[in-house]
Write a structure and sequence with these properties.
With about 210 residues, the chain is mainly α. It contains nine helices and no strands. It starts with a helix and ends with a helix.
């Protein structure tokens, strides 16, 4: 009984520490998206998270470390969403279509657009942040497709001589000109049905080039 009593306070302390970190991350994420990397100050983040400056810096010693943690958190959630969406898809057409629909829907959403603009602003003014953003979002998605294509090639479902290059091609086809038009606020954003039709056509063209 004495052992359990000694352990419980430590567990509660760890949970409180984790909760504080999560609160800071959520505040930082909101402010980075609202004001950009340079516009969101640590004072603003501290205020929105309602924590002391010492608490903020004990979890995240620098703004760059905090930004990297925000990117990692978003990347993990995005990867989990994509993985859950395609978990039951084994055939190439079904996997690529489901992945493409989920990916493009997020990319063209208000949050997806905000993250993209944040990436451009941050990497322009703070070049050291570019690799962080790329690794957290774009590369993670590319890697997921690359792994699937390599497995599909090994199973003789597709002919993929270079999974990394083919992954880049597929992801580039998905974004296409549609993403640029949405980012530049040209025309009306595509509806879910239009995204589905676009992805289906993209998958058709990709599979024609890689059919077993």
């Amino acid at each position: 009984m004495r052992v359990n009593e000694d352990i419980r306070p430590v567990g509660r302390a760890q949970l409180r520490k984790r909760a504080k970190a999560d609160t800071i991350l959520q505040a930082a994420r909101e402010l980075f998206l609202e004001h950009g990397y340079s516009g969101a100050t640590t004072d603003m983040i501290q205020g929105r998270a309602a924590v002391s400056k010492s608490t903020l810096y004990s979890h995240f010693p620098t703004k760059e470390v905090l930004f990297e943690a925000v990117c990692k958190l978003g990347s993990d959630a995005f990867e989990a969403m994509l993985a859950n969406a395609v978990v039951s898809e084994t055939e190439p057409r079904g996997f690529l279509h489901r992945f493409g629909t989920e990916f493009l829907t997020y990319l063209l959403s208000e949050e997806g657009k905000a993250f993209f603009r944040l990436m451009v602003e941050a990497s322009k003014n703070f070049p050291q942040l570019g690799p962080i953003f790329y690794g957290a979002g774009i590369k993670a998605s590319n890697d997921m497709i690359e792994r699937y294509l390599a497995d599909a090639h090994a199973a003789k479902r597709l002919v993929i001589d270079d999974p990394a290059l083919s992954s880049e091609h597929y992801m580039g086809m998905l974004r296409g000109d549609m993403h640029l038009r949405v980012i530049l606020n040209i025309g009306t954003p595509p509806s879910p049905a239009q995204i589905d039709t676009y992805v289906a056509a993209t998958v058709d063209r990709f599979l024609k080039a890689h059919s077993a």
